[in-house]
Write a structure and sequence with these properties.
single chain; mainly alpha; 4 helices; about 70% helix
């Protein structure tokens, strides 16, 4: 059964279905990403994080695993109306975070970094922003599915 946007045909009234909080997810993800980015860049500037490569690898692998999980989940969620509705609600933000993490992770791995240059701090900022955005979006999707 493929669900549509309205009632999904599950026999649930609109009061009982969890509302789509996509705008709140985007706002919280952006604020959380900026806070996480600020902390990571400050740690890098003060030489407490010495390399960006490890963080880029973590973001890349986590993004690929979440992309594969989302792909599998989207095929299995067809029979579950609530899961399909939650996935549709948060899909755009989640894909933004996943693809951003994958692309910036690849950029971070492909580039050789010098600890004194500004470019590694910019790449680290992008990687950590998209990583935090992806994690927060995933948490919103899980919260929607579990509530």
């Amino acid at each position: 059964m493929i669900c549509n946007y309205d009632g999904c045909g599950c026999g649930m009234s609109e009061r009982k279905q969890s509302p789509c909080m996509n705008g709140i997810m985007i706002l919280v993800s952006i604020i959380g990403g900026l806070l996480f980015t600020t902390a990571a860049v400050l740690l890098f500037v003060f030489s407490l994080i010495t390399t960006v490569g490890f963080i880029a690898w973590v973001a890349l692998i986590t993004g690929l695993v979440l992309l594969l999980t989302l792909l599998i989940f989207s095929f299995t969620a067809e029979d579950n109306c609530k899961a399909a509705k939650c996935t549709r609600c948060y899909l755009g933000g989640l894909l933004f975070g996943i693809f951003g993490s994958i692309f910036t992770g690849l950029l971070g791995i492909a580039t050789s970094f010098a600890a004194v240059a500004v470019f590694p701090a910019v790449i680290l900022g992008l990687v950590t922003f998209f990583f935090a955005y992806m994690i927060i979006s995933t948490l919103f999707l899980l919260k929607c599915n579990l509530s």
